[in-house]
């Protein structure tokens, strides 16, 4: 259940993002200012709507931290788009011929920056029984 303080923080974050989109000025390409403003508003709306069903307080806190991190990165680098990330080679998915262990999923999750959490698509960790059935086929 979401308490009033968490709801207030989420609404304040949304208001902060919308206000940022109205005052945003593109430094590198002044002609693209309106395009970047529109991107910020649309991205905020899309992600807030996508996550409106989340009821777990820990997940909500993670999303708030992600939003704040993205705001800080955008203001610091004057670029509203997500920054590219280079993951260590040990955290990349292995060949499809091999069974992936739970620890590999955990390492991959830890090495992903918080500002890219909304873009991830979590793979389901298959049960060992399902793995064995597929390996035998």
From TrEMBL:
Domain Complex 1 LYR protein: start-end pairs: 9-72
GO CC terms of this entry: mitochondrion
Domain of life, source organism: Eukaryota
InterPro entries: Complex1_LYR_dom, Complex1_LYR_LYRM1, LYRM1
One Pfam family matching this protein: Complex1_LYR
UniProt signal peptide: none
Entry's family note: Belongs to the complex I LYR family.
Protein name: Complex 1 LYR protein domain-containing protein
């Amino acid at each position: 259940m979401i308490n009033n303080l968490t709801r207030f923080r989420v609404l304040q974050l949304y208001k902060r993002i919308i206000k940022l989109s109205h005052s945003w000025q593109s430094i590198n390409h002044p002609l693209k200012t309106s395009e970047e403003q529109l991107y910020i508003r649309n991205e905020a709306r899309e992600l807030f709507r996508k996550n409106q069903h989340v009821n777990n307080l820990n997940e909500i806190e993670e999303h708030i931290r992600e939003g704040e991190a993205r705001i800080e990165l955008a203001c610091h680098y004057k670029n509203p788009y997500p920054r590219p990330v280079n993951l260590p080679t040990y955290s990349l998915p292995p060949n499809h011929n091999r069974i992936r262990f739970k620890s590999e999923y955990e390492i991959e999750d830890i090495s992903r920056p918080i500002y890219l959490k909304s873009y991830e698509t979590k793979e389901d960790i298959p049960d060992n029984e399902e793995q064995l059935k597929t390996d035998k086929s």
